[in-house]
Amino acid sequence: MSAADLLRLDGRVAVVTGGASGMGRDIVARLREAEARVFGFDRQPGTTVDDLVVELTDRDAVAAAFATVAATAGRIDILVNNAGIYPFADGVDADPEIWRRTFAVNVDAAIDCTRHASRSMIGQKTGGAIVNIGSVATRRLVPGLMHYGASKAALETVSGSLAIELAPYGIRVNTVLPGGIDTPGYQAATATAQAQTKAIRPENQLVRRGGRLVDRSGRGDDMALAVLFLVSDMASYVTGAALVVDGGQVLS
């Protein structure tokens, strides 16, 4: 089989959370280009009839969304848990609600979506692929993102455990760790962080901007291509992996 054929996703059905903007939108576009039918779950409306408005922290809403996918497409082959939030906050004085909300979106919602998707994959008896979007914040610690890094570390642990538990059913589970991907959400979060730095603790550089070995900023499509590889047959021997996509930022 050719390399091009290995990347094709003809006939497969995918769910991508946070699919209406940023990296999620790029992931949706690449999977659709590879001929998958993609359902984007997001709090904001998408651009096609397969994009569903879903509050991912509402378990009833998530269950209803997966029921819609099952009724419409009849199966689920791919899940990409991309949705995530990263509010900057001082680690010592952060409002406990920030911790709760960050873990609710970044960890609990991902597990909830995985529960529904994996049950469908198991019932189909044809295997599947799950990709969780982590972060290099688990490798290169950033002041102001303690809660975010902790949530992504938890998600990475979940990925490894699920890779073991779901392997007997032919379901692969991997994690992608982006670093410094230039999206509107990242730009807004960075601007907010700089303002909070001055207001809360001026002597602390809240956002540490490290260099990269690759001389450019990361793009959403860099993440989308990594996800496409991991959900395709090209990565049929890859599970339980954590793929760093940061232009060498962790090493710089």
What does this structure look like?
By secondary structure, the protein is an alpha/beta fold. It has one domain (3-251): Rossmann fold. Helices cover 44% and strands 14% of the residues. It is built from seven helices and seven strands. It has helices spanning 3-6, 22-33, 59-73, 96-124, 146-166, 184-200, 220-231, and strands at residues 13-17, 37-42, 51-53, 78-81, 128-133, 171-178, 242-245. It has a seven-stranded parallel sheet, with helices on both faces. α3 (59-73) runs parallel beside α4. The longest helix has 29 residues, at 96-124. It is globular and about 45 Å long. Residues 187-200 and 203-209 have low confidence and may be disordered.
Bulk shape: globular
Beta strand count = 7
Considering the protein shown, what is the CATH homologous superfamily? NAD(P)-binding Rossmann-like Domain
Nearest-integer average pLDDT: 90
Q: Taking Cα atoms only, what radius of gyration do you get, to the nearest Å? A: 18 Å
In the CATH hierarchy, the third-tier topology is known as Rossmann fold
Secondary structure tally, helices:
7
Largest sheet: 7 strands, parallel
- CATH top level class name: Alpha Beta
Structural class assignment: alpha/beta
**Could you say what the CATH architecture is?**
3-Layer(aba) Sandwich
Helix content: 40-55%
The assembly state of the depicted protein chains is single chain
Q: How far do the termini sit from each other? A: 38 Å
- Spans of 5+ residues with little confidence (pLDDT < 50)? 187-200, 203-209
Q: What is the N-to-C succession of helices and strands?
A: HEHEEHEHEHEHHE
Number of domains: 1
Strand order of the largest sheet: 3-2-1-4-5-6-7
Task: Determine the strand fraction and express it as a percent band.
Answer: 5-15%
